Amino acid sequence: MSIGPISLVTILSPELDQSVAMYQKAFDWQVASGNPQITPEQAQRWGANKLAGAPTVTVGGINGGVRFIQSQEYQTPVPLKTFGWSALEVCVDDVFFYTDRAIKAGFTLLNEPVALSGSDKPLPLIAAQLAGINGEVLYITQILDEMPNFELPDVKKESGSIFICVLGASDLEASRKVLEEGFGLRRASDRHVAIKVLNKVYDKPLTDTHRLSSLQLNGRNAIEIDQMPAEAVNRVVKDGLLPPGISIVSVVGQSDQEIFLKLPDGAGLEILPHN
Prior knowledge:
Blueprint: E1 3-13, H1 16-27, E2 30-31, H2 40-46, E3 56-60, E4 65-70, E5 84-92, H3 95-105, E6 108-117, E7 122-131, E8 137-143, H4 155-158, E9 161-169, H5 172-183, E10 186-193, H6 196-201, E11 210-217, E12 221-227, E13 246-253, E14 259-262, E15 268-273
Parallel strand pairs: 1-4, 5-8, 9-12, 13-15
Antiparallel strand pairs: 1-13, 2-3, 3-4, 5-9, 6-7, 7-8, 10-11, 11-12, 14-15
Helix pairs in contact: 1-3
């Protein structure tokens, strides 16, 4: 089954209104119409029965959105300190403008906009990393030119769209194997680079390198898998709930029904029917 593009990123939050407002102010996203509560069927499929009936709000742009689910029963993880889905990446046509807007909207700057590194030279990408209030990390990325071996959005047409989700893995190859063998995803990259935001969070030299690998999705989207530092830990998940931070990434797939599976490190992947 082929999958993509990214449709939703699910995040538990004790503060729905504030969370939604931050993304609206940063990117001019709109609240989507739909069921204002998680259905018992959804909660059962996710293995999170305590979320049945929980208030939920989805906010999004041209492509992709964030689904916030009300929950008071968990401790927000420290950004990038745990395994699982760690970040959503939004493409923009002016990274400095949108980074400034995101900071004013309430996001915390983790790493200022800089050119991203390839194996031997900078990539045609400028990205900043910020933290939301629910343990999620937000990459704001300007795509300057075509990327070798990647299919990425045209930011002139899709500015403000989610185009990558980042999986922080305890074992990069194990997580990648599930996605490649289960969905036939094409490996677009596998390299060691200095990920400055990880080095800052873990108080390491900024030149320390980390392994990352990207897999191409349909719809000019991708999944990036980062091999997390040895100091990273598992997230604390309470019975009947989803993991804190980014818990589920939902993608469009060639299926006539919704499918949910858990990747390594408890990362939820949801396949939504192609309309």
